[in-house]
């Protein structure tokens, strides 16, 4: 790995103009991806994960969307490029694999036709050469008997096979960065494991960086090198996967981990005893709350959590950062781990220092 990250995102903010005003989907987030590593963006549905990764290559329609901030890829500032200048990056150096291959594939054309078309868009090769390359790619992603199956239509492939075809399309240009947006969500558990293993093998083979979007922390534990936890368009916590799982710092991260069946490491007795989800819902993106975005649902929120901006990230060491006032100088993070039940939560859960008058 070089010192310079493959992808460096700073202050990314993506909003949408709606009939009810400005909707804030991503609000000033930072993250990096290096060659040969997998970085997972984690959070509940609606946390801004998909919008964040689609903003990298400007897949968001503008208008109604508006993308601000810095996106540097291989040292190049992508936000300075026109759509025409950005085109060689989209699907080439930066490739996407989306959640539902059923919708991504055209059922009127054979798998082979679609792969050959993708190859010839990016490479000046003959149809016969593109066909040979397509067969090789299908073989690479584990499609059996690719020479004959290249003539089949999407409906003749299983869900897992369709996703493998989509990965093959993403590999056409041997990208530097593969963005995988919930690529296993619609698949059977055993097929999910196969796809994850395939992505790991391809990452090693091609030396790619992988940016993986998921809400499934079990998946994160298997594939991630580093993790970025998003909530309501803000970063709550980030760090190496082992550090984050063994020593989760932010109350939101701790609640996410407490939802994992059979998992209790690092979660205090109060939170660890509560399973089955997080009470409440994400804030209205048209009217996000002041202070920490998670404060309205946090069992440890204090008045200071509900004013100003999102707390600055505090470095806990080893690239482990958390955005929570309890880690600021002069505060005491032990309130999150001592197991002492706070009082009077707004969502029915315990909560420190916030009363109905607040």
Structure characteristics:
single chain, 358 residues, alpha/beta, Rossmann fold, 2 domains, 4-stranded antiparallel beta sheet, 12 strands, globular
Would you give an account of this structure?
The chain has 358 residues and is of the alpha/beta class. It folds into two domains: 7-228, P-loop containing nucleotide triphosphate hydrolases (Rossmann fold), CATH 3.40.50; 270-336, no CATH class. Helix content is 28%, strand content 20%. The chain is built from twelve helices and twelve strands. Strands 6-7-8-3-9-10-12-11 form an eight-stranded mixed beta sheet, with helices on both faces. Strand 1 and strand 2 form a beta hairpin. Helix 4 (111-122) crosses helix 5 and helix 5 crosses helix 7. It is globular.
As for the number of domains, it is 2
Class from helix and strand fractions: alpha/beta
The total strand number stands at: 12
What is the typical, i.e. mean, pLDDT? 85
The level 1 CATH classification of the largest domain is Alpha Beta
Principal-axis shape: globular
Major sheet: 8 strands, mixed
Pattern of helices and strands? EEEHEEHEHHHHHEHEHEEHHHEE
Distance between the termini: 49 Å
Kindly report the spatial arrangement of strands forming the biggest sheet: 6-7-8-3-9-10-12-11
- Provide the gyration radius in Å: 22 Å
Main location: membrane
Subunit structure: The complex is composed of two ATP-binding proteins (NikD and NikE), two transmembrane proteins (NikB and NikC) and a solute-binding protein (NikA).
Region (Disordered): 331-358
Subcellular location: Cell membrane
